[in-house]
Amino acid sequence: MTDTLSTRSPGRTLAIDADRLWSSLMELARIGAYDDASTGLVGVNRQSLTDADAEGRRLLVRWMEGAGLEVTVDEMGTIFGRREGSEPGLAPVMAGSHIDSVATAGAFDGCLGVLGALEVVRSLNDAGLTTRRPIVIAAFTEEEGVRFGTDMLGSAVAAGRLTLEYAYDLVDDAGLRFGDELERIGFKGDRPVRLNPPHAYVECHIEQGPVLAQEGHAVGVVTGVQAISWQKVTIHGRAAHAGTTPTELRIDAGLAGAQIVVHAREMVDSGRYGRLRATVGHVATSPGLPSVVPDRAELTVDLRNPDDAHMAAAEADLAAFLEQLPAGQPGLRVETKRMAKTHQVPFDPAIQDAIAAAAADVGHTTMRLMSGAGHDAQEIAAIAPTAMIFVRGQYDGISHNPREYSTPEDCAAGISVLGTTLLRLANEAADKPADEAAA
Ligand code: HGY
Ligand code: MN
Ligand code: MN
Questions:
Q1: CB count, 10 Å around CB of 90?
Q2: What is the CATH superfamily name and number for domain 18-225+344-438?
């Protein structure tokens, strides 16, 4: 659906400083920068709780303080910057995202939402505007989940879906524990992690897909997030000589791993599970030697589906396939471990409309679309009216790749929509239970 007319009476709009936004994005992207061999580009590797992440966090705190925000850090390391309103007792309007990245990132994933919210605050300061409600910026910890294995971790604990203890005990591939790493980088805060529901939460994020570019919109209004399922599969076989061991005597964990990869794609191609997407992002065999039949294989299986019933059916299919694998190779053992699981999450229609109206009032057509990626907004949606703004990506919206790119103009478009939306929401009168809780 294309929103071309403002669905609400035009109210104030907020002008933002596009150059300042862009230079903040480029400055943060220099932290964790690396030369990416496969693209020849400079990528970003700022995985959560690494030294690079810590450096990015410290820069963000300095910037927040420089913008006059009261900075707090919660027990999960999520960083909050609060701009006071004229009625401090009202529930705040919140905006944010994440600044941790995958290992092969670009400059925009998550960062646009955090630095865009900072740009809104800076622009409110420039305009000398005070909103009724406080405005709070949030940079959630471990949104990507690629280091400790569960995505949207900080926001899921803040919203109460996951516990602090679960998060603290997660370990990375080197066996380093989340809670210890948080302490090590100096971001284990004392702000209680359970978030009081904000009046509303709005997140601006790059689309990370091709739809807005195909449809000709710089900005999109996100209707919700599809379901996500992450599992780790470990296959135990038997190491044996590659030359002397007849096929019928082999217990080949590598073969079983490859069969899983092919089956995941066959599930997608079958059409039985609607718009299923399946990705085996991590495949490792051991001992990994040319003359030894692998005795162990480790895989991650990432399933995505906009429909919960199709997701459940796909997970059941995968479980049944794993169950029958040993029949083909007696002695094979298969273990699975749940890493992440979230259902399809719809966003609040009224917040969607507020975004669409703001976009129309600042001169941008929009369309409504579902998010293919997971976002912190899907967690905050459990406790507050929430929606997202998408910004068009170039090169088919490629992301989780250093080629990830949105133009300065499109980033500014998304953040000017964010600014106008936040300005209006932050001037809404007290009318929701969140205000009682905030008092
Ligand atoms: O995995 C995702 O969809 C997001 O990038 N965390
Ligand atoms: Mn993201
Ligand atoms: Mn991401």
A1: 23
A2: Zn peptidases (3.40.630.10)
